[in-house]
Amino acid sequence: TAKHTTVGGLEQLCRCINRPALSEERVQCNAAWQVELKLETPWRHGSTHLVMSPLELMQRLAALVPRPSCT
Description:
By secondary structure, the protein is α+β, with helices and mostly antiparallel strands. The chain is built from 2 helices and 3 strands. The protein has helices spanning 7-18, 54-64; strands spanning 27-29, 35-38, 49-52.
């Protein structure tokens, strides 16, 4: 797009594309083989982590990927 035609715009686009979806420091596997995702900010009711199966994590990450454009 025209927004990314400058050198600075291309650099910003490359940084965005190369950024990982999750920080490695925030994701762990517990003793029950469940994925623990540490929240950046605790929720109002006090939750600091989300716990889910590896499959559920993959489903949630896949839902964030946009569908390919048919143009």
